[in-house]
Design goal:
This protein has 225 residues and is mainly beta. Helix content is 8%, strand content 35%. The chain contains 2 helices and 15 strands. The protein has helices at residues 82-90, 189-198, and strands at residues 11-15, 24-28, 38-39, 46-47, 56-62, 70-72, 77-81, 96-109, 122-133, 141-143, 157-161, 175-179, 185-188, 204-207, 212-213. A hairpin with a 6-residue loop joins strand 3 and strand 4.
């Protein structure tokens, strides 16, 4: 776990609920249209993957008992249900971009069970690249190479065993990708309360200090001397 630091405000990593009751994935179908890569204004390097542009067409893959409100897809895009999109806008939350209508070609049942009789309307969205920056000194992250650009902080992570954000860098977004960990979606405490209040499904929220990603079982980095 990351170093013990006062965590105010609180943040959470957002993932889908794998093997949950509303476990749902989305696979795009050809043709897939891609836009230009975002680039760091300081070092000029690409930030993240090439973004997909409309139209969005694909297949919902249903692993759970019912379709979820949050659906992971390829790249940085993901799907949210119409009811979640309407609530997000109505309550004035920030950080989601796009809201492009999605054409669901079909629902593919991946485990035993009936195909849903109705399919909610979905929208393709992406979380903004936020200003919130990972506090390298107070986080337990193994890097595959050193962070060199102070702006984008683009460097891959081998393992994550909890992290924190540098005080003063977050600018109030409710959902965003932080500098230093662009591959992860971080949400505010207000967003977490929003999810709980509405009962949105297929969403797992883990406090950033407790978030662990270690596919190679390398363990946390050694303490700095």
């Amino acid at each position: 776990m990351a170093s013990d630091v006062s965590a105010s405000p609180r943040f959470f990593v957002l993932k889908d609920e794998l093997f949950g009751s509303h476990d749902t994935k989305f696979s795009t179908v050809e043709p897939i249209h891609l836009g230009d890569a975002h680039r760091c204004p300081q070092c000029g390097e690409p930030i993240g993957m090439l973004p997909q542009v409309p139209p969005f067409r694909g297949v919902l893959e249903l692993y759970g008992a019912a379709l979820g409100d949050f659906v992971e897809s390829s790249g940085y895009d993901f799907l949210i249900s119409e009811r979640m999109a309407e609530a997000f806008r109505a309550e004035g939350l920030t950080g989601l971009l796009g809201f492009h209508p999605v054409e669901v070609v079909r629902v593919h049942r991946k485990r035993r069970g009936p195909i849903p009789s109705t399919v909610p309307r979905y929208f393709a969205v992406t979380a903004c690249f936020g200003r919130g920056a990972v506090d390298e000194a107070r986080s337990l992250i193994r890097r595959d190479e050193p962070v060199t650009c102070p702006e984008c902080r683009g460097s891959g992570a081998d393992t994550i065993h909890g992290f924190t954000l540098e005080p003063g860098t977050w600018q109030g977004e409710d959902i965003f990708r932080p500098r230093g960990l662009r591959g992860d979606i971080v949400v505010s405490e207000r967003f977490a309360e929003f999810v709980q209040r509405h009962g949105f499904t297929n969403m797992k929220l883990t406090p950033i200090e407790q978030f662990v990603w270690d596919p190679g079982h390398k363990g946390p980095p050694a303490p700095s001397s």
